[in-house]
């Protein structure tokens, strides 16, 4: 169900209510003062979710304008293989 934002005529804080799309109200009762409150246009809740796919998409989208900066080479746990053959010591090194 979509969420609708209402503004009280008496100046109370805006409030939200959930209604089915088949019955969109133009007005509602203010929960603070019980005056009539008109429905206003609110910001759409696009991309709101807490699934693993949504978190991955948000992280991927964030790297487009805020890439992580690398300050050095990553530490390598791989050792360069060395030969114990004495003939290999005479070869030129790269």
TrEMBL record:
Residues 1-42 form the Putative regulatory protein FmdB zinc ribbon domain. Transmembrane segments: none annotated. Residues 77-86 have a biased composition (Polar residues). Residues 58-94 are annotated as: Disordered. This is Regulatory protein, FmdB family. It comes from Gordonia bronchialis (strain ATCC 25592 / DSM 43247 / BCRC 13721 / JCM 3198 / KCTC 3076 / NBRC 16047 / NCTC 10667).
């Amino acid at each position: 169900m979509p969420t609708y934002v209402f503004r009280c005529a008496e100046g109370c804080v805006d409030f939200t209510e959930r209604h089915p799309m088949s019955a969109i109200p133009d007005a509602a009762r203010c929960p603070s003062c019980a005056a009539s409150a008109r429905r206003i246009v609110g910001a759409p809740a696009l991309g709101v979710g807490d699934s693993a796919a949504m978190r991955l998409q948000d992280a991927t989208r964030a790297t487009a304008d805020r890439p992580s900066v690398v300050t050095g080479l990553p530490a390598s746990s791989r050792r360069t293989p060395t030969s114990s053959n004495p003939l290999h010591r005479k070869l030129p090194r790269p």
